[in-house]
Amino acid sequence: MSDADKQVLLEVKGLTMDFGGLRAVDTIDLSISEGEIAALIGPNGAGKTTFFNCVTGIYKPTGGDILIHPQDKPTQRINGKKPNIITELGMARTFQNIRLFSDMTVLENVMIGRHCRTKTGLTGAILRGASVRKEEQQIVEFSYHLLEKVGLTEFADEFSKNLPYGAQRRLEIARAMATEPFLLLLDEPAAGMNPQETADLVALILRIRSEETIAILLIEHDMKLVMNLSDTIHVMEYGKKIATGTPQQIKDNPKVIEAYLGEEADA
Amino acid sequence: MKNLKQSLAVSLWFIFLTFPLMVVKVNTTDNIVQWRWMNMLWVGLAIFALSFLWRYALARKEARQMAAMSGEDEHGKPSKMQRLFEDPAVRTKMLFGIMAFALVFPWVFDTYQSTIMISALIYVVLGLGLNITVGLAGLLDLGYVAFFAVGAYAYALLNHHFGLGFWICLPLGAVIGGIFGVILGFPILRLRGDYLAIVTLGFGMIVKVVLENWSDFSFGPSGIAQIDRPGLFGMEMNIAASTTYIYYIMIALVILTIIVTGRLKNSRIGRAWIALREDEIACVAMGIDMARTKLSAYALGACWAGMVGVMFAAKTTFINPASFTFMESAIILSIVVLGGMGSILGVILGALILILMPEYLRAFSEYRMLIFGAAMVLMMIFRPQGIISNIRQKYELKGLKEKSENV
Ligand SMILES: Nc1ncnc2c1ncn2[C@@H]1O[C@H](COP(=O)(O)OP(=O)(O)OP(=O)(O)O)[C@@H](O)[C@H]1O
Ligand SMILES: [Mg+2]
After folding, report:
1. What ipTM does the predicted assembly reach?
2. DSSP annotation string for B52-96
3. Same domain assignment for residues A187 and A143
4. Range of the domain at A153
5. A111 plus A218 within the same structural domain
6. Are A220 and A119 found together in one domain?
7. What is the dihedral of CA A20, B195, B298, B391, to 10 degrees?
8. Per the count of CB atoms within 10 A, which of A120, B141, B265, B286 is most buried?
9. Do A147 and A193 sit in the same domain of this protein?
10. CATH number of the domain that A126 lies in?
11. CA of B114, closest CA in chain A: separation in Å?
């Protein structure tokens, strides 16, 4: 899939993130193309989540460049831009430790994702004219359709904190998709899921790619899922990238086996 | 059984502790020691009963929580009163009843009652305003009364120096209050939790200190007197008529506040506030501008205080800094917390209860703060979500559901 003619969407060059003396992300290069499903793997503490946080603006990276090339829009360097701006530019994420709005309903959680694509202001909200009501209805419809996609319509009016774990992870995906991203960053989407839920998740991710033309970068510890799903795999260890390649190449890479798969075999 | 034993232990401990105070009494004139054994018995019994009740209630609460954990979700479920209110038929009837009562109130009761009701209504608006900042957006504000003061002084000074009337100043007060909300909001955009509490508390204090000491501007502690009451086409009104008039203006303001805050709450902006309260990081990661959302929450919270501050100045015709102490901020915050964070109905009930109760229970006025505090503590333990827990809006999904089933 990662053909040369596919447009590159995200290009990370020499990304570095220091926490005091600790270099959590060390000169990482990485790029994601249109329609690609890429995985970022590595042992615990390798710096994967930190990489996500840098790319999505939660942390301001200490070095390197993050460039995005959205379709029909000029290239932009997004280092140190605010998270909400980056989301508006078209990259949305989920969180390793689920961060839903627990006292809002499932539907409302997704509706929050529509915030940056809608524009009702204070006066509009107070006067609630026809156009505002229409926009509101559109938000509801759009969000509901996303719930259909991830299979959560039956819970639409539940508080999101009452959802089972696997459903919460899917809700996070729906919420991120509501921002209409061109790239979706998923941080351990299958963590804590049972085999059935994981299978559903794989189907969902494949559907997202085919139906929505959204590229996906996911962090995951479930090797089977990663190998099945990804076009490209990037491996990190101690903040550095030690390998990039197709699932087959990664499986056979001695460095990776030593750093990651070997470690798992020991455990 | 365990409860009984522990309660017994507690009561014995209290008997021991209070022994020197309650039992031994030295009569210094006759130089004899009186032993009041009966007191000891009373202390023992009272503490035993209280402790037992306390433990029983706690145990029940825990049992309920266990039930909630194992599936049946009790916590966060609307209370009985709430479910009653959600029933549309009951709701309209109740609304009519309340409206009718509110409208005839000043004719049925005397001026004194109306005055009390006016201050209660002022607190309703204050509570609803603070509810935006604290209840919806989750931003603690311990200096809310500062905005109230700003509104009151804005009217008093504009009226004193330029003779501006009430009706011009009412929206002006809201605007000035909102501007001060933004002024407070800017420096504390990055703060949370304890720091937020300290800075907002400080802000409230600063405003009061400035008003007290900048005599050239605010006339210092002596305050400003002879502020005009609200005018009605230049008509002359006696005190009673004017009170009734103010009462009706207040009713209108309360209705306006309810409508506006209700609409805001269920709008794109309101959802952003709630998302900010629930999880700041997820909120910005979903594309919401944090600075803008926070500032709008402070500004919109503050503008109600500014507006109703104008009303307050017009009602009392005299203001001085003593009316705007931290106590007021604390009471308004209690209204929001006790009523139910984020819930409009809850805040209204909270305001009426907290302001009217002390008025009608003058007999207990000495213990007012004590009862207040105890109620607060009990509330936090047994019903932390407030009198009325926040109900989220249900959206029109029927059409959508059918549509997707047909496909
Ligand atoms: N805010 C922070 N301040 C200081 N150190 C941090 C911070 N965030 C992460 N780190 C450190 O950076 C390193 C990488 O952490 P990170 O969470 O990115 O790992 P990870 O690859 O996502 O691991 P896991 O698979 O367990 O999620 C760890 O050593 C962590 O302690
Ligand atoms: Mg991680």
Report:
1. 0.91
2. HHHHHHHHHHHHHHHHHHTS---TTPPPHHHHHHHSHHHHHHHHH
3. no
4. 98-180
5. no
6. no
7. 90
8. B141
9. no
10. 3.40.50.300
11. 30
Final residue of a domain: which of A116, A150, A180?
A180
Comparing A56 with B402, which gets the higher pLDDT?
A56
Would you call A104 and B300 a contact, using CB atoms and an 8 Å cutoff?
Answer: no
CB proximity under 8 Å: B 23-52 to A: none
Read off the pTM.
0.86
The three-point CA angle B404-A103-A99 to 5° equals: 85
State how many domains chain A has: 2
Residues A102 and A74 in one domain: no
- Report residue A69 as tokens: 């090339």
Q: What is the mean pLDDT of residues A235-258?
A: 89
What is the rounded CA–CA span in Å between residue B135 and residue B273? 9
Contact B139, B298 (CB under 8 A): yes
115-154 of A, contacting B, C-beta below 8 A: 115-118, 120-122, 124-126, 128, 132, 135-137, 139-141, 144, 148, 153
Q: Which atom of ligand 1 is nearest to the CA of A19?
A: 4
Residues framing ligand 1 (Cβ under 6 A) = A 19, 22, 24, 42, 44-50, 96
Q: Considering A129, A154, A180, which residue would you say is the last residue of a domain?
A: A180
Q: How far apart are CA B199 and CA B150, in angstroms?
A: 18
Summarised one tens digit per residue, pLDDT across range B218-262 is 888 888 888 888 877 766 778 888 888 999 999 999 999 999 999
* Residue B397 scores a pLDDT above 70: no
Q: What percent of chain B has pLDDT over 90?
A: 35
